Amino acid sequence: MEQGELPVLLVNEVGGVRGVLKAHVEFLKKHFHLITMKEFLKNKKHWSKKVQAIYLWWHKPIIDRELLESLPDLKVIANSGVGMDHLDLKLISSFGVKMANAPHAVSSSTADTGMALLLASARRLVEVSPDTECFADDLLGDEVTGATLGIIGMGSIGYKIALRAKAFEMKILTEEEERAVGAIYCTKIEDLLQQSDFVMLVVSLTPQTHKLIGKRELELMKPTATLINISRGPVVDQDAPVEALQTGVIKAAALDVTYPEPLPRDHPLLKLKNILITPHLGIKTDKTTRMITEEAVANILAALNGLPIPNEVFP
Amino acid sequence: MEEQELPYVLIDTIGGTHGVYEDHVEFLKKHFTLITMKEFLENKNHLSEKIKAIYMWWHKPAANQELLRSLPNLKMIATSGAGMDHLDLKLISSFGVKVANTPFAVSSATADLGMVLMLASARRLVEGCQIAVSPNTEHFAADWLGDEVTGATLGIIGMGTIGYMVAKRAKAFEMKILYHNRNQRKEEEERAVGAIYCKKIEDLLQQSDFVMLVVNLTPQTDKLFGKKELELMKPSATLINISRGPVVDQDALVEALQNGVIKAAALDVTYPEPLPRHHPLLKLKNIIITPHIGSATTSSRRLMMQNMVESILAALNGFPIPNEVIP
């Protein structure tokens, strides 16, 4: 098939800090004629009516009314990853454009990240000092085996975390019934917070989960407990953990997500000793990023061929 | 019961870097009259014959010929942890003294640490933390990636209690598990964790994405892992050591990491501990080193202490000794 006959796919950029991975370009070019926002803006008249699909990578390009209006033949927007909180789903739908995410590709890798943060925090992995002359026995950490893990959010990722935690003989508390992993169902979030040694946030960001964890929830947690967030920064009221960690309301926190990302360099969270912050590692492996692109391509091709979209997201 | 009637037990010191934990002392004093090495040396004549047991915490006090000779009524040495490589078991036995360790108290915490090192190494956690807080960070690069743990192949060398616990945990990450051990485990045990026995260590090394060393240090396992083994590993593989430093030929490891023979390493144990500050291992980028924290949790250390007390009491009362080590 000639390059000209392939459907046109718009991406923000290729390579660089936020761009689509260079390693994925060959695969994308098998199915699409790839253009970047830069190329699009340079020759809007030419590309306007040709772009049929957009592939978002790290939330870019930004989908606003102006962009949607300039792409009359746009059929589908495929998101990399599962979170859709950066998109105005109603607006996009009003233009007759379909949307899809990549929920399956992300789950194992994100669950692994949650467990890595839990373990690293409990066992104080990151506190190793380069100036060590002898090993002080005051580097004692907390036992993970047999501890209680409260999982807030029981989608695919939460479920995979429960499976992993179970192998560490952890007692698992959830807010949703999940008998398959022997989790104990807490009808109220308060019960989960009061009994957990580790609280892990694995929810989507929605108006209901925005600032789900604030001062009140942190105060309900044990003073020996650790908060782990692998969902979205805004699920936590970010001022609250600063104070809670400084005053020992909770013992420690491990955050793979914050708002913004990265945090401004003078942010109080960066100065705390009892916190672990990672640069949104959730899906950052070769294998998972590859699977995300494959899942997105499958979604796009289905949409363009008038077939049911495997991971369609409705407003 | 009066203080003098409790059996006399020798310890190194209380508190400080390697001393008996201050918050364990209350429990210990319920059962024993504790004598520190300082007190013993100051009053050898009086205390020599009274000491019935040594509570050896982090290898101290050292059970050398001189000490053993000066304690004619010594019946038992309880040592913390699982490793026995710091003790001359034959020498101790020649004095009619029994020995006990704490192999089970350490196992879950050590297995957990093996998993932390594997996950942290694969997902570049330590590096990631540095990026997250670095004053120079302006954005998080999209092409900064780690390796997938789910579905990868883990080769466990040494499938004792700790190795088996590692296998149980790794199974939940859908890992393919290979193991090499002196003896093959029972079929039901293998099936429970989905572990495949590799009679030849070469087979395990060539197929594994992560190789974890979980053996005891014995004359047979000393320098078990050297240039040959490292070269058999995949260049994309990571070596994890939670057993003892001398199991690995450290010079060979330095070279292998420098030349990309293997991708990375994560070591909870080295020789010596800590490494001298100019050691080449400390300069490498593709390595994580932790300060022998395998059993370093509050609850595991408490359990170790309680196990040691039980062993000493059993020995002094003529009962079968839990965790006795026969030379």
Automatic annotation (TrEMBL), chain A:
Name used for this protein in its record: Glyoxylate reductase/hydroxypyruvate reductase
Sequence ranges assigned to domain D-isomer specific 2-hydroxyacid dehydrogenase catalytic in this UniProt record: 22-313
Domain D-isomer specific 2-hydroxyacid dehydrogenase NAD-binding: 115-282
Organism of derivation: Chelydra serpentina (Snapping turtle)
GO MF terms held by the record: glyoxylate reductase (NADPH) activity; hydroxypyruvate reductase [NAD(P)H] activity; NAD binding
Record-stated family: Belongs to the D-isomer specific 2-hydroxyacid dehydrogenase family.
UniProt xrefs under InterPro entries: D-isomer_2-hydroxyacid_DH, D-isomer_2_OHA_DH_cat_dom, D-isomer_DH_NAD-bd, NAD(P)-bd_dom_sf
Keywords: Oxidoreductase
A GO CC term attached to the entry: cytosol
Automatic annotation (TrEMBL), chain B:
The protein's name in its UniProt record: Glyoxylate reductase/hydroxypyruvate reductase
SUPFAM superfamilies associated with the record: Formate/glycerate dehydrogenase catalytic domain-like, NAD(P)-binding Rossmann-fold domains
Species, as recorded: Chelydra serpentina (Snapping turtle)
Domain of life: Eukaryota
Keyword set includes Mitochondrion: no
Keyword line: Oxidoreductase
Annotated family: Belongs to the D-isomer specific 2-hydroxyacid dehydrogenase family.
Domain spans labelled D-isomer specific 2-hydroxyacid dehydrogenase NAD-binding: 116-294
InterPro entries recorded: D-isomer_2-hydroxyacid_DH (IPR050223), D-isomer_2_OHA_DH_cat_dom (IPR006139), D-isomer_DH_NAD-bd (IPR006140), NAD(P)-bd_dom_sf (IPR036291)
Domain D-isomer specific 2-hydroxyacid dehydrogenase catalytic: 22-325
